[in-house]
Amino acid sequence: MPGKTHDLRQAFPGAVLRRACRIRMDHMRIVLKLLVPVLALPVSGCLSAGFGGGTLSPPTEGVAALDGGLIGQDPVGRTLPEDARARALEAEFQALNFATAGQPVAWNADGYSGEVVPTQLYRVGSQDCRGYSHVFQGESPAVKAVGTACRTAGGFWKPVV
User: Fold this and answer.
1) In terms of Cα–Cα distance, which of 46, 136, 127 is closest to 87?
2) How far apart are CA 155 and CA 135, in angstroms?
3) Phi, psi of 128 (to 5 degrees)
4) How many domains would you assign to the chain?
5) DSSP assignment of the chain, as one string?
6) Are residues 88 and 133 in the same domain?
7) For 103-140, what is each residue's pLDDT tens digit?
8) 91 touches 114 (CB < 8 A)
9) Strand pairing partners for 116?
10) pTM
């Protein structure tokens, strides 16, 4: 029989190729149907984070514990509109809690924008601390604020003066 299969392939090479391609395409469709939802989950999480616009929910306890953060300590930062300050503070919270060292967390609101970049986590006594920088801009040139925050016993980040 091996000779007969060989003869069929010679007689109908296009049919064999089409069948092989159809099987391969079916496998690719299955993989895509499984991958698309899995890849969409992280993107949907980013979109729901609320850094790009929309209404803000009340600040969480962790954001409130930042006590204004770097944006609130800077004279230019204190002049930002309320929505921009809230988004900037939320970005500081996200960067301190979830970003890896050097990973920027961007925000924008009301024509203002900024980026918070945390440094490596380090320990001082029994507290975890982390340096971070916050560059923001709007009507004036970009301003850079640099500071450190340490995690309290309650688990919240508190800027170190």
Assistant:
1) 136
2) 25
3) -85, 135
4) 2
5) -HHHHHHHHHH-HHHHHHHHHHHHHHHHHHHHHHHHHHHHHHHHHHHHT--SSSPPPPPPHHHHHTTTHHHHHSTTGGGS-HHHHHHHHHHHHHHHHHPPTT--EEEEETTEEEEEEEEEEEEETTEEEEEEEEEEESSS--EEEEEEEEE-TTS-EEEE-
6) yes
7) 999 999 989 999 999 999 999 999 999 999 999 998 88
8) yes
9) 105, 134
10) 0.62
Residues in the chain, how many? 161
Examine the domain organization and report whether 24 and 65 are in the same domain: no
- Is the same domain home to 132 and 59? yes
Distance, first Cα to last Cα, the chain: 85
